[in-house]
Amino acid sequence: MDIRSISATLSVSPQITVADLQRIADLGFRSIVCNRPDGEGADQPVFDEIAVAAKKLGLEARYLPVISGKVLDEDAAAFGSLMQEVPKPVLAYCRTGTRCATLWSLSQSDAMSVADILAASKSAGYDMAGVVRRIANGGKTPTDRADASFDVVVVGGGAAGIAVAASLKSRKSDLEIAVIDPADIHYYQPGWTMVGGGVFKAPQTAKTMGSLIPRGVHWIKSAVAAFEPQDNAVILDGCRVVKYDRLVVCPGLKLDWHKVEGLVETLGKHGVTSNYRYDLAPYTWELVNGMKEGRALFTQPPMPIKCAGAPQKALYLSGDHWRKQGVLKNIDIQFHNAGGVLFGVKDYVPALEEYINLYNADLNFFNNLVAIDGPAKKAWFDVAKPNTPVERVEVDFDMIHVCPPQCAPDFIRVSPLADAAGWVDVDQITLRHKSYDNIWSLGDVMNAPNAKTAAAARMQAPIVASNLVADIEGHSPKAQYNGYGSCPLTVERGKIVLAEFGYGGTLLPSFPSWMIDGTKPTRAAWILKEQILPPVYWWAMLRGKEWMAKPEKVSAS
């Protein structure tokens, strides 16, 4: 018997027999529901046999037959009502369990998000892609097919999405392009480290989305519920359908604040902050500026995360401020990193270690933040050193800067576009999807093994645009991505270690060493970060002007 749990109250299975009922009762089920019509298979016991035996074991038994491949809207409504009536937990069965999973998925459409429904059914081994529009439409069959159609649809209006839309328009101005994003505000997220360090003000990092959508590009202000790549369709919340000839997927990633127990309840108070949120970065500076003594913790979760250097950037700018204020000797700085190294590219580590020593910071590797109690000023870390049992340790704090765990957005992880880990599955050179030839991805959401930074998206946008236009014109990919990413490590106010690297940790400096030696802290790199990169972002990258980002041509074979 193959019983699969879908929710706390429902499990499903293929056809059961009378002989299975004792085990079903022993497992704690209180009701069984048959969704398979009698006589569908030659080896199938009729429901009355099951019901009589179930009653003797104290199990409630209900019969809601559904024809294979024809789950009607009223069937789903009846299943939802039945689930309200019968004692729980419930085991529903049919020939394979698929009809049961489908009925549950449709019946939950008003109570759960599409992504959560798809994730629950997928975890039980059932793919609900065929009914995703109905789920998005409140469990009912939509009356229409497509609300709009475009040459190119871009999912995501962040740095990657707007940049690639602008690059496409600059290459082929007659393209009908739509950007799908529900947000009103677009943020320059690389600036939040500087806000937390007292260098920038938060409003400097925000502009309205409408002011940044490239001219001639349509903005669909909605969230995406699901993808139907076999039909070249994107399903929006409310079951609106947008069709495309080609699709670019770049919605960024999800900050999973809830993965750290107690974190959500205490963010922004009790000394708990994070530069990973617009409204919290000013609180970071408030804490740093007001701290004269005590313990300051800085955390980094398991990879991947966006801007892997950001957790320690907060440490460096804080330590520099305390040093200049003459209070550093009174502050215990600790960096708790779930990984085993300070930075993933070894060439930059010596310079960073000098600053760790300057600020007298303790490095705690293989330390992953799992819980926090803000009012009690306590944090708990799981310490998972190699070949050693995991140990949970408690650490007191006066201030803690948290970098949250991160993953692909829910609607990506449960989609046909995702790999086993939940990221969009692309060829790391062309950034084209491995299974769907008319889909590309860039930015934080795709699975190429590069650093997830805005600088990476700046390089990727023209590559995707070039290859997509080449595809429209009937050519093979023309541009290749070398994994470039950049992390300006703000080691002190006025100096930066400018880490620039590609696949495999290969150094990819943009400037000659006499101008900026990226392996050493320089004033020039700070000027780049503080004064040059913000206008480059707003006025070049997001407008299709590819300064220092021309695509590298595919090597001849």
Automatic annotation (TrEMBL):
* Enzyme Commission number: 3.-.-.-
Which ranges carry the FAD/NAD(P)-binding domain? 150-269
The domain of life for this entry's organism is Bacteria
Sorted alphabetically, which keywords does the UniProt record give? FAD, Flavoprotein, Hydrolase, Oxidoreductase, Quinone, Transit peptide
InterPro entries registered for this protein in UniProt:
BLH_phosphatase-like, FAD/NAD-bd_sf, FAD/NAD-binding_dom, Prot-tyrosine_phosphatase-like, Sulphide_quinone_reductase
* Alphabetical list of Gene3D superfamilies matching this protein: FAD/NAD(P)-binding domain, Protein tyrosine phosphatase superfamily
Cofactor requirement: FAD
- Please state every residue range assigned to the domain named Beta-lactamase hydrolase-like protein phosphatase-like: 2-110
The Swiss-Prot or TrEMBL record annotates one GO molecular function as: FAD binding
Q: TM spans, by residue?
A: none
Q: Is the keyword Membrane assigned to this protein? A: no
**What biological-process GO terms show up in the record?**
sulfide oxidation, using sulfide:quinone oxidoreductase
Q: Does the keyword Oxidoreductase apply?
A: yes
Fetch the Pfam families from UniProt.
BLH_phosphatase, Pyr_redox_2
* NCBIfam families referenced in this protein's UniProt entry, alphabetically: TIGR01244 family sulfur transferase
Q: Which PANTHER family does the record match to this protein?
A: SULFIDE:QUINONE OXIDOREDUCTASE, SULFIDE:QUINONE OXIDOREDUCTASE, MITOCHONDRIAL
Q: What is this protein called?
A: Beta-lactamase hydrolase-like protein
What species is this protein from?
A: Pseudovibrio axinellae
Q: What is the lineage of its organism?
A: Bacteria, Pseudomonadati, Pseudomonadota, Alphaproteobacteria, Hyphomicrobiales
